[in-house]
């Protein structure tokens, strides 16, 4: 059962099964037939051959530009994000095929009843690397070890994800928080950038 944002290990394993199955749905390119939403903001989803290019242009740069224009992302932090975007080719990997992603898996968007996940609410769907979904779950502490162990059994988690790539993807989710809530959320962004050496 779901209590105050905490899930049982059985629920975490069920969630891993659900998301592993979702991630089996693939496309030839990253993107989506139309833009989707993250909260009140549009997420651009143009079909893009390279996942890394898609993530660079339509996730990191797009939200960094919007946060800077809104006055919530200071110029020094924007420069740190820009430095990271220039190095993405050496930090990230391309997926075997872009997978269908929910895009917003955190505890408030997971409906549980009788020990099973019944629904994932409020999707911000697009096709991309499944690692960004896993990194979002990790960053927001949605699920714990039971989830990641089961997902690894189902689809595999490549070496280097927890050590490096999760932090790269966390920069995006942290930028979104800065855009939504302002400068009070800069600490998580700066922490992720510092962890990566930027």
Describe the structure.
With 198 residues, the protein is mainly alpha-helical. Helix content is 51%, strand content 11%. A two-stranded antiparallel ribbon has the order 1-2. Strands 3-6 form a two-stranded antiparallel sheet. Strand 1 (36-38) and strand 2 form a beta hairpin. The radius of gyration is 16 Å and the shape is globular. The chain starts with 8 loop residues before the first helix and ends with a helix.
Name the features.
198 residues; mainly alpha; two-stranded antiparallel sheet; globular; disordered N terminus
Would you summarize the structure shown here?
By secondary structure, this protein is mainly α.
Secondary-structure blueprint:
Layout: H1 9-22, E1 36-38, E2 41-43, H2 51-70, H3 75-86, H4 88-91, E3 99-101, E4 110-113, E5 116-120, E6 126-128, H5 130-139, H6 145-154, H7 161-181, H8 186-195
Antiparallel strand pairs: 1-2, 3-6, 4-5
Helix pairs in contact: 1-6, 2-3, 2-7, 5-7, 7-8
Helix/sheet category? mainly alpha
Shape: globular
User: How far do the termini sit from each other?
Assistant: 40 Å
Low-pLDDT stretches: 1-5
What summary fits the major beta sheet? Answer: 2 strands, antiparallel
How many strands in all?
Answer: 6
Output the number of helix runs.
Answer: 8
Alpha-carbon Rg, integer: 16 Å
Task: State the helicity in percent bands.
Answer: 40-55%
Beta-strand content estimate: 5-15%
N-to-C SSE string, H for helix and E for strand: HEEHHHEEEEHHHH
Integer average pLDDT: 94
**Major beta sheet, strand line-up:** 1-2
């Amino acid at each position: 059962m779901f209590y105050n944002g905490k899930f049982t290990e059985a629920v975490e394993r069920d969630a891993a099964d659900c998301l592993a199955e979702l991630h089996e749905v693939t496309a030839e390119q990253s993107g989506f037939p139309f833009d989707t939403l993250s909260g009140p903001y549009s997420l651009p989803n143009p079909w893009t051959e390279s996942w890394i290019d898609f993530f660079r242009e339509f996730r990191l740069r797009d939200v960094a530009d919007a946060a800077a224009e809104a006055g919530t992302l200071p110029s020094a932090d924007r420069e740190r994000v820009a430095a990271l975007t220039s190095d993405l080719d050496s930090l990230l990997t391309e997926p075997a095929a872009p997978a269908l992603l929910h895009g917003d898996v955190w505890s408030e968007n997971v409906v549980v009843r009788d020990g099973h996940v019944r629904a994932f609410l409020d999707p911000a769907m697009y096709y991309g690397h499944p690692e960004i979904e896993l990194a979002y779950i990790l960053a927001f502490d949605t699920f714990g070890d039971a989830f990641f162990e089961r997902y690894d059994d189902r689809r595999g988690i490549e070496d280097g994800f927890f050590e490096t790539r999760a932090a790269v993807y966390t920069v995006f989710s942290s930028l979104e928080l800065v855009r939504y809530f302002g400068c009070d959320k800069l600490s998580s962004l700066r922490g992720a950038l510092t962890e990566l050496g930027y």
